[in-house]
TrEMBL record:
<dbReference type="GO" id="GO:0055085">
    <property type="term" value="P:transmembrane transport"/>
</dbReference>
<dbReference type="Pfam" id="PF03480">
    <property type="entry name" value="DctP"/>
</dbReference>
<dbReference type="InterPro" id="IPR004682">
    <property type="entry name" value="TRAP_DctP"/>
</dbReference>
<dbReference type="InterPro" id="IPR018389">
    <property type="entry name" value="DctP_fam"/>
</dbReference>
<protein>
    <submittedName>
        <fullName>ABC transporter substrate-binding protein</fullName>
    </submittedName>
</protein>
<keyword id="KW-0813">Transport</keyword>
<keyword id="KW-0732">Signal</keyword>
<dbReference type="InterPro" id="IPR038404">
    <property type="entry name" value="TRAP_DctP_sf"/>
</dbReference>
<feature type="signal peptide">
    <location>
        <begin position="1"/>
        <end position="20"/>
    </location>
</feature>
<dbReference type="GO" id="GO:0030288">
    <property type="term" value="C:outer membrane-bounded periplasmic space"/>
</dbReference>
<comment type="similarity">
    <text>Belongs to the bacterial solute-binding protein 7 family.</text>
</comment>
Length: 335
């Protein structure tokens, strides 16, 4: 028995040694756009802790927040080129690589987060990520920024006509631009890092973002009204450079994949908890928040549906069919 125990100990020591040799000293530059305390930043920090733990401290993750590594398009290009190892942009940004990511941004598509989780955690989310490697990107799963609401300096939005003519910052995705034109606004594509200054100067009247971004970016200082439209759910794609990924051992790939999945569960949970807290804090900071009547939301949906359908007609029919069949199933399962 003693000999067997010693032999087992020796075998485990050899396995641990071999495992350690599979993990090299590496540093991952992980960029994002938001400020400290935002759920995305907290997700990156959780990922860094998990990677350090799982790699015995050999793989280090350095966080670069607040757009210090550049705009959405700049950081995505850097990840494609292997200059930057990781980035967590909105899936709206990822649509520049695979346009069908825009299906996630279909206005008024989701009624709750259970529907979101079922779509992105199922075959549709997997199919989207499978198209990324040919673009120099490896998808590491979906995190979230959450449901978006409309803010402005003119008046509460009670009916769709209240949005008419407002100069509104939107992300540069064509679906966003055309959807906000259909809502009657004057949409202006602009990098996120430039938004606060544009609102402060009056160059823009309005913007649209989830509670946590409005809070951590201090938009309540330059916007008076928030109207709870919940018009789009923003998912975030955790991107890794394929050039970097291809250099990794199988052990390192497993460590990073497990850490991204575990950090994702944490990030989505804390994002939803913080959304409720952020709403209260925005009110405490003087922002006036109002609900939008259901008939007004129905009118907005009717205005944007033709836009979404028009874009869908230009996408891969197989992915559109998968999206529509999954959404039909999910809405029935999670009403």
């Amino acid at each position: 028995m003693k000999i067997r125990v010693l032999a087992l100990s020796a075998l485990l020591a050899i396995s641990s040694s071999a495992l350690a040799e599979d993990i090299k000293e590496r540093t991952i530059r992980f960029g994002h756009l938001v400020q400290p305390g935002h759920p995305l930043a907290l997700g990156v920090q959780k990922f860094a802790d998990l990677v350090s733990e799982k790699s015995g401290g050999k793989i280090k993750v350095r966080e670069f927040g607040g757009s210090v590594l550049g705009s959405e398009s700049q950081q995505m290009s850097a990840v494609q080129g292997g200059v930057q190892q990781m980035f967590v942009p909105a899936t709206t940004t990822a649509s520049a690589l695979v346009k069908e990511f825009s299906l996630i941004d279909t206005p008024f598509a989701f009624q709750n987060t259970s529907q979101v989780d079922a779509l992105l955690g199922g075959p549709f989310g997997t199919s989207l990520q499978e198209r990324l490697p040919e673009r120099g990107i490896v998808g590491m799963g979906f995190w979230e920024t959450g449901f978006r609401n409309f803010t402005n300096n003119r008046q509460p939005i009670i009916k769709m006509e209240d949005m008419r003519g407002l100069k509104t910052r939107v992300m540069g995705d064509p679906l966003f631009l055309d959807s906000f034109k259909a809502l009657g606004t004057n949409p202006v594509p602009m990098a996120f890092g430039e938004l606060y200054g544009a609102l402060e100067s009056g160059a823009l009247d309005a913007e649209e973002n989830p509670y946590s971004i409005v809070l951590t970016s201090k938009f309540y200082e330059v916007q008076k009204y928030m109207s709870e439209t919940n018009h789009v759910y923003t998912a975030n794609l955790v991107m890794m450079s394929k050039r970097f990924w291809d250099q990794l051992s199988d052990t390192e790939k497993q460590i990073l994949s497990e850490a991204a999945a575990e950090a994702g569960e944490y990030q989505r949970t804390i994002s939803r908890e913080k959304a409720k807290v952020a709403r209260d804090q925005l009110i405490a900071n003087g922002m006036e928040i109002n609900s939008v009547p259901q008939d007004s939301l129905d009118q907005m949906r009717a205005a944007t549906d033709p836009v979404a359908d028009g874009f869908a007609n230009s996408y891969d029919p197989a992915l559109v069919d998968l999206y529509r069949s999954e959404m039909k199933r999910i809405r029935a399962a999670y009403p």
